[in-house]
Amino acid sequence: KTPLRSHIRSDVVRMKGPHKFPTGISLMNKVALITGITGQDGSYLTELLIAKGYNVHGIVRRSSSFSTGRIDHLYRDPHDPLRQLTLHYGDLADSTSLRRILEAVQPDEIYNLAAQSHVKVSFEQAEYTGDVVATGTLRLLESVRDVVARTGKPIRYYQAGSSEMFGAAPPPQSETTPFYPRSPYAVAKVAAYWYTVNYREAYGLFACNGILFNHESERRGETFVTRKITRAVGRIKYGLQKKLYLGNLDAKRDWGFAGDYVEAMWRMLQQATPDDYVIATGEAHSVREFLEAAFARVELDWRDYVEIDPRYFRPTEVDHLLGDASKARQHLGWQPQVSFPALVARMVDHDLELARREALVRAST
Length: 365
Ligand code: NDP
Ligand code: GDR
Hints:
By secondary structure, the chain is of the alpha/beta class. Helices cover 39% and strands 14% of the residues. The protein is built from ten helices and 13 strands. Mean pLDDT is 93; it is low at 1-7 and 9-27. It has a single domain (8-219, 255-282, 321-338), classed as NAD(P)-binding Rossmann-like Domain (Rossmann fold), CATH 3.40.50.720. The chain starts with 30 loop residues before the first strand and ends with a helix. Helix 2 packs parallel to helix 4. The protein has a seven-stranded parallel beta sheet with strand order 3-2-1-4-5-6-11, with helices on both faces. The protein binds NADPH dihydro-nicotinamide-adenine-dinucleotide phosphate and guanosine-5'-diphosphate-rhamnose. The site of NADPH dihydro-nicotinamide-adenine-dinucleotide phosphate has 26 residues, from helix 1 and strand 5. Residues 117, 119-120, 162-164, 213-214, 223-225, 228, 246-248, 251, 253, 287, 312, 314, 317-318 line the site of guanosine-5'-diphosphate-rhamnose.
């Protein structure tokens, strides 16, 4: 495998536009720029856009260990004339890097997925979360505004909004439900939402907010509750772990499959006019129900393994999220393909296989 990180472009500033990149792809191909490309959604969106023939550019932040595991399978050597993926170092906390990358890439579409996306962590790192999620969005929008004004080239912008913005608002929640955020993360997402609306109205930017309810997959970060549960199910089944410590089991979420949700992001940017859309399954389940389904998949009873640890409680909780995605169904023709039982099954099956391999490695050392 090519060590991906060594090929991240730091010399992009010397390039004049996307046509200068040695991709070999037709000049007619659309160019997309994705922030948060190394995250769960970034990886699915990159797959989708590459399949559609886009040249995809992604912003990654520097870290001391590799963060590109979710997109390594999409990467090709920079000298490969057919490659469609280029990575750039940048950070939502660093407006200079954003501006430089935008100038060089001059994308047709931008998907702003980057965030400190963990709700509980946002209570511990509130200021940082606000800086990246809210002010980071503002930095990016300001760069887009300037590049569009200077070049005259239209850029379509997608903002990763969240059902967390509804917070304490009673279900079901739709585009007309007033926001009532319950965490620093959610407050920052509300600010980002309104920045996006304001740039659309003030500067005529083609900017959309996707208000996405929880979406999961086998690529979900392991500290989010669904993946934490399915990882534990696999490891418990193979004798690698004895207990699973969780917080509030009563919270209800509208859980869909991430692969379905990135399709909705793309569809929003293909419309004649920009707008905001709720994306959800219309079905809510409690954390307890997720536990039941995940452990039942391997014929275990979750009650034998789960213990409550108050450290996972949040200062303010979001009790019940249930989305009404009628507008997306009507305008985008979007609807989810993966049901709740199918989602749980694919995550558990994936993590069983991970645990099986882990057990083999342990046994052989
Ligand atoms: P992840 O946490 O998996 O990915 C977040 C991405 O943002 C990672 O690529 C991360 O990089 C990057 N990132 C974090 N901080 C910065 C920064 N300062 N500058 C540049 N990049 C940064 O999130 P998801 O893929 O699950 O979610 C994508 C977006 O959608 C997020 O904005 C999230 O808040 C939002 N969202 C997610 C939902 C869900 O259920 N998944 C629902 C609704 C909204 P690194 O890999 O280096 O950490
Ligand atoms: P959420 O997802 O906060 O909805 O944000 P998370 O999986 O973290 O929590 C869901 C619910 O489960 C409860 N819970 C636990 N959560 C975690 N992480 N760990 C535990 O041990 C645990 N025990 C119980 C939580 O209290 C909560 O009620 C996700 C993120 O992807 C956001 O970025 C995104 O905006 C929203 O979904 C929509």
